[in-house]
Amino acid sequence: MQVIIIGAGRGSRLMPTTADHPKCFAEVDNRRLIDWSLYALKENPVQSIGPEQVCFIGGYQIAKVQSAFPDFTFRHNEKWQDNNILASLFCAEDLMQDGFLCAYSDILFTPAVIGDLIASPAEITLGVDTQWLERYVDRTEHPSDDAEKVTASAGRVLRINRQLNEQDAHGEFIGVAHFSRAGAAQLIEHYHRCRREFAGHPWGAATVFEKAYLIQLLEEMLLRGVAMSHVDTPGGYIEVDTQQDFQYAREHWSGNHLRR
Question: Long-range pairs for 192-199 at CB < 8 Å and ≥24 separation?
Fold first, then answer.
């Protein structure tokens, strides 16, 4: 199973923690975020995934990740200061063709959700936290209107957009998704279609195509009729985007999550 971890950005909202280290090196319960990701991948109940199956897309402080994880494959997003998550992901386009699992690098998630994603028969499956609003109580530095909200019906994702109403949301996309070979082909096709049309120009909520988020492409695909499924985790997920999130994670995440 090919895994692509997206971690090129500096994480300026997590300063001063990211002053000299990549965001994924922030420590929660004596483990770095990237270590928690590797444990979840290895300990999932369906298919153990080792570091040799991981491609890390780096930019800021990439050398420190390369030194710490020599078994990773690396792709360098040299323009990380001028682009965003979607462009970062496609630095590893050459590794997508046989299907892949992708994940943001600044998140905590459980082995169980990885197992559910791998086991999903759908061509594209998104991980969704259905208890997402619990994390947004007092989350003033990253309010709920900034959440990557998902609406769904009968197991299918309908929309994925920050602007969706909270009361309509099934949950929040956790930044982890699985693409089969066919699903990866659809992602690649739609990415290049949109790139041909919008490169260097505004695209949806992005001031320029290169600054787009992954969810913007997923939303575009949904609106074009591409089917996507979801697997749910009721909690068991934390995004570490700000110092406030960092403190929350240190108070609410522990080794017990590895067994979920």
Answer: 194/220
